[in-house]
Amino acid sequence: MSLPENLRNRLCDLLGDRLSEGAADRDHHAQSESFHRAPPPDAVAWPETTQEVSAILAACDEVGVPVIAWGAGTSLEGHALAVRGGLTLDFGRMDRVLEVRPEDMTVSIQPGVTREALNQELRATGLFFSVDPGANASLGGMAATRASGTTAVRYGTMRDNVLALEVVLADGRIIRTGTRAAKSSAGYDLTALFVGSEGTLGIITELTLRLHGQPEQVAAAVCAFDDLDRAVECVSTTIQSGIPMARIEFVDAATARAFNGYAGASLPELPHLMVEFHGSPGAVREDAERFGEIAADYGAKGFDWATTPEDRARLWRMRHGAYHACLSLRPGASGVLTDICVPMSELPAAVHAAAEDIAANGFIGPIVGHVGDGNFHSILLVDPGDEAEVARAKEVAFRMAERALAVGGTITGEHGVGLGKRALMPAQHGEAWQVMGAIKAALDPRDTLNPGKLVPDRN
Amino acid sequence: MSLPENLRNRLCDLLGDRLSEGAADRDHHAQSESFHRAPPPDAVAWPETTQEVSAILAACDEVGVPVIAWGAGTSLEGHALAVRGGLTLDFGRMDRVLEVRPEDMTVSIQPGVTREALNQELRATGLFFSVDPGANASLGGMAATRASGTTAVRYGTMRDNVLALEVVLADGRIIRTGTRAAKSSAGYDLTALFVGSEGTLGIITELTLRLHGQPEQVAAAVCAFDDLDRAVECVSTTIQSGIPMARIEFVDAATARAFNGYAGASLPELPHLMVEFHGSPGAVREDAERFGEIAADYGAKGFDWATTPEDRARLWRMRHGAYHACLSLRPGASGVLTDICVPMSELPAAVHAAAEDIAANGFIGPIVGHVGDGNFHSILLVDPGDEAEVARAKEVAFRMAERALAVGGTITGEHGVGLGKRALMPAQHGEAWQVMGAIKAALDPRDTLNPGKLVPDRN
Ligand SMILES: Cc1cc2nc3c(=O)[nH]c(=O)nc-3n(C[C@H](O)[C@H](O)[C@H](O)COP(=O)(O)OP(=O)(O)OC[C@H]3O[C@@H](n4cnc5c(N)ncnc54)[C@H](O)[C@@H]3O)c2cc1C
Ligand SMILES: Cc1cc2nc3c(=O)[nH]c(=O)nc-3n(C[C@H](O)[C@H](O)[C@H](O)COP(=O)(O)OP(=O)(O)OC[C@H]3O[C@@H](n4cnc5c(N)ncnc54)[C@H](O)[C@@H]3O)c2cc1C
């Protein structure tokens, strides 16, 4: 497919060489970090201003050409693939930090700013932005997927850290949602509605984010457990005890092996927890001691404290690299990913059942997770060319999701719906999925924005 | 007006004597805590189950009779008044705590449970529900107004503490939003959409709430300042310093006077801060010391520590009673209330400007606030029969709202829109207000649910 002649002319006038129909540019935007594949979009545009985004959307909406936003392209469920063709909007050129307000602990940015660039920019302020998915994602994409990371257990997810948005609607109207105040009761929470909407309700052109103060003291450690059950039970007990963990991450024995091979680590091939404490020196000491006592009850051993900032950076870089490290366990493999999140009391049983199912089906399927939230992933390594194997992996993933729903959990804690989780939406939401469809139809009547994702197909 | 014959028969069959068209019942549901007035509803119903709510809504929607939810009737902007007649649904009989899950720190309840009843029920668990508006509101009403209270600075508002809802839609469909997991990325955040929707999008029939552990140690104090500016500047500095305040409340000199008269206090007639610290003994000591140092810089004096649980209960009961205490400063008066919330750095100027405008216009208008969030109220005491005075008070209130918007704040931090703030919605939201209207039209096409509130009128 290609853009309608008329639309191409309008967009060329508007964007010049920031519109491309070249194969390389299109193919680059047909890639995905997971096994999902789709044909490339018809064209790619690199807008530089909100006004341009507005003009592009109005033009595409008029002639019924889909528009798909693209941040860093690191989403894991094929979110940004142009399954119905159309125009991909790459936000790589809208990457400015607009205003830091240290005294309010907020920042306003364009959507293409990446989390690493943002924290680089904030370094001198004593503040940081807390949400840290493993990839160096864009903040626009992170808002759109309601992303989280290792620190959500303490500082929350994108839901909690986005204060306000500028959004361009399908027909080109520009709106602002939220304010810079800490709270508001002035009508429907449109900010929360656009966060997690995966580019299907509107295109985010500006974000105002909550920042946090750099903790006075930080302590981090890794420790090993004899078996998976004891490691995960230690997590439940820790969270239930109320210790305000800044991070508490689980990696299983397979992941530890992957770290050794891929990241030059030398961990025993056992399940591990990686933990971090933030606060005043006294509080960090108290918290670390209390955690140490709980961990000892579960037989934790080989406590390794990361004392310098460099050691800690190395530790978390390793954790953030878990996905790619795990992929390296089977060269050429892709990952069928699960992302369930369950109530804390259900976590040990959920991880146990997942591990059993993976083993019973003969997969290499490392398990890692932001377990302080009750959230974990298994990365089922498959040969993307082997349809039968992919199908079998999807069955394992499907059963994990079903078990999560049965105990009051969710099919996706942080990655989002995209293509990969859409078939599970009716099971999770029932009639509420139709309500999502009604909202989509009200805001995007021609189904211009990222069509074929998240909501039910139109009748 | 009265109910259409057919509808009355259907509802009578369904509810028996839990449907009333009696004058006393109708008049009771025409009352409001503020100066807003409207004719009574045509009838009042007391449902006992979700199925009943569903049947009532389907029946009313069919014949175009408005349905207005009623929790405890404590909202301050005429939210629950039947401005277009119809049926008021009183949730007083749906007041059961359904399930406490201490190990997950969650609870599921019916909407008519009040915040005091809930915390009574939780006493033995070591957990508490944190959101505490001054009135003993229902949790359904608190969710519907996105309420907050004195502890929001630490534990968040209803936005942060509602995990999942059961909602009956205008046509009677029953949906569930959210899960019991700590986070989810499974599609649009319908929970956040219904929280704060003031009964205009759906009727909440069940809530799952986040609980918090009772802090190991609690310390509370009240202290006085020479003038309003220094008290409020102390708040900004405290919050910016990162001390994790559990409560930090401001009351001005007029409010202190009201407490003395109404609540038997003996405070100097000066501006005060009321503060509370939660945590481990060490952390509470550190936090209280740091706060004490900051407060001393602003000339705080007369520190009075509430050391026993009874003393603290008395302190916060007094604070919760501020609205009624202030009303007593002018017998027979009603309150025109403001509820702005601004970014922390703007708080001192905002309070200062409000106080000046109130004084310049000769009002008794005490100022109190959840200032740790940047949120404060002035209670402009008016003779509800004196239209000119009410109009003048509304002008003062309007200017406060305008100033809040000019610095990135909101017209209502916690009370919500109701009747009183609706005229300000275009100023705050611009085109986004139309988006709220489009969502309302999609979910409630016949405008059955609390019509005439929150969104623009239908064309
Ligand atoms: C190694 C690795 C580790 C990861 N770890 C985590 C993790 O810990 N936690 C986590 O949550 N995720 C994780 N992810 C997934 C991914 O990083 C997140 O989903 C991230 O939020 C995607 O951001 P992005 O900028 O890459 O978005 P993209 O992939 O470009 O887009 C994602 C979705 O957002 C939409 N979108 C993008 N920009 C906008 C915009 N401006 N307006 C509207 N819609 C927009 C797109 O249309 C698409 O639907 C990981 C991925 C990898 C590869
Ligand atoms: C003395 C005093 C102090 C106060 N202090 C505070 C404060 O500190 N913070 C604060 O936020 N508020 C405060 N308020 C205001 C009030 O308590 C809150 O707005 C509260 O949330 C209202 O709850 P309610 O149960 O009384 O709701 P109601 O007044 O009965 O209803 C409020 C709105 O919610 C809707 N509603 C009620 N139940 C449902 C349901 N089940 N489903 C859908 N919609 C529903 C109604 O239709 C209406 O629109 C105070 C009020 C008083 C009188």
UniProtKB/TrEMBL annotation, chains A, B:
The protein, known as: D-lactate dehydrogenase (cytochrome)
Keyword flag Oxidoreductase: yes
Named cofactor requirement(s): FAD
Single GO biological process annotation from the record: lactate catabolic process
Keyword DNA repair: no
Basic and acidic residues composition bias: residue spans: 23-36
One GO MF term attached to the UniProt entry: FAD binding
Region listing for Disordered, in residue ranges: 23-43
InterPro entries per record: FAD-bd_oxidored_4_C, FAD-bd_PCMH, FAD-bd_PCMH-like_sf, FAD-bd_PCMH_sub2, FAD-linked_Oxase-like_C, Oxid_FAD_bind_N, Vanillyl_alc_oxidase_C-sub2
Keywords from the UniProt entry: FAD, Flavoprotein, Oxidoreductase, Transit peptide
EC number: 1.1.2.4
UniProt similarity note: Belongs to the FAD-binding oxidoreductase/transferase type 4 family.
Start and end residues of each FAD-binding PCMH-type domain: 37-214
Span of the signal peptide: none
Record PROSITE patterns: FAD_PCMH
Pfam families assigned: FAD-oxidase_C, FAD_binding_4
Taxonomy, superkingdom: Bacteria
Classification via Gene3D superfamilies: 3.30.465.10, 3.30.70.2740, Vanillyl-alcohol Oxidase, Chain A, domain 4 (1.10.45.10)
